[in-house]
Amino acid sequence: MKHTLIAALSLMLASPVMAGGHAATGDAIAGEAVFGKQCVACHLVVNGDGEKLAGRNGKSGPNLYNIAGAGAGMVEDYNYGKSIVTAGAENGLIWNEETFVAYVQDPKSFLRTFLDDKKARAKMSYKVRDEEDARNVYAYLFSLSAE
Ligand code: HEC
Fold it and tell me: Are 29 and 13 in contact (CB under 8 A)?
């Protein structure tokens, strides 16, 4: 029975979730595991009440709460690199599934292409190897934000 429930749940979560015109097509349950392996060293997810929804102690990267639909480089009090701030504040980069999935697979190349600047830099050196993992972790972060 337990398996049926999990299967039904993951089916639900795997179907596109819509909120505020944004969609997440990945599997949030699988994405939670991806977060725990690949993002937790550097990122937390902390909501507006200061409640920790995901992560442990890693905070060399910005808080990823409400990242879906947010402008790039806009978490207050986080000391971003210059390129991502330029991308968000001056060039309108918004995190949706498409931009997020491309960014986390290669932050530096993504910013270089987006800004059309061969010298753009990324403070995030980590690269997600598998596109499906990237999609799933987006769905997970999306599910934590859509309250
Ligand atoms: C080794 C540390 C490290 C790991 C691992 C890491 N990140 Fe990051 N991440 C960073 C840093 C540092 C930044 C800030 C980038 C900058 O300022 O250029 C960042 C920025 C980001 C941003 C942009 C946030 C914003 O406010 O615009 C997203 C999205 C992101 N990371 C997602 C992820 C996801 C998802 C994972 C796991 C798959 C991950 N990161 C793994 C260090 C990391």
Answer: yes
